[in-house]
Specification:
single chain, mainly alpha
């Protein structure tokens, strides 16, 4: 509880007078009067403290959120969460589409590269075959030349 002022414990003038009488007379009747007055003051003090506490609690309750305000806040949070969820779904779909496009592009490039390699392989094999045929023909020519030069 904020803002309440501490009350000092004190005896009223009437209670002080009764204490003085009791100290002087020291009779049972003066003791009873004194204790009754102190008890009455305690009750009044307790009532005062209770009233202060109730006032402070009422002030704090005004600061609390009402049920309708709470529900409205929850509803707003749910709407915000749903909007964020939808934004994320849209972003995920966009990224997914971009990835699919990039994968398709990569596949196309890979197919083109494979086709290029096939053609290069075929040309290499043809070149090797031609070189082999030329080498064989050259070797046969040399052997025939040698054979013909030795026969004659």
């Amino acid at each position: 509880m904020q803002g309440n002022t501490m009350q000092k414990d004190y005896l009223s003038d009437g209670a002080k007078a009764l204490v003085a009488i009791f100290i002087k007379e020291q009779t049972e009747e003066s003791a009873i009067k004194m204790l009754n007055e102190i008890s009455r003051q305690n009750v009044l003090s307790s009532e005062n403290i209770k009233n202060i506490a109730i006032d402070e609690i009422r002030k704090e309750l005004w600061n609390l959120v009402t049920k309708d305000e709470f529900k409205a806040e929850i509803k707003a949070l749910r709407a915000e969460t749903l909007a964020t969820k939808n934004e994320l779904k849209a972003e995920i779909a966009e990224v997914k589409a971009e990835l699919k496009a990039e994968i398709a592009e990569a596949r196309t490039e890979l197919k083109e590269d494979i086709n290029k390699l096939k053609y290069q392989g075929i040309f290499w094999l043809m070149g090797t075959a031609v070189a082999t045929v030329v080498t064989i023909v050259g070797a046969v020519w040399v052997m025939l030349s040698f054979a013909l030069s030795n026969i004659a």
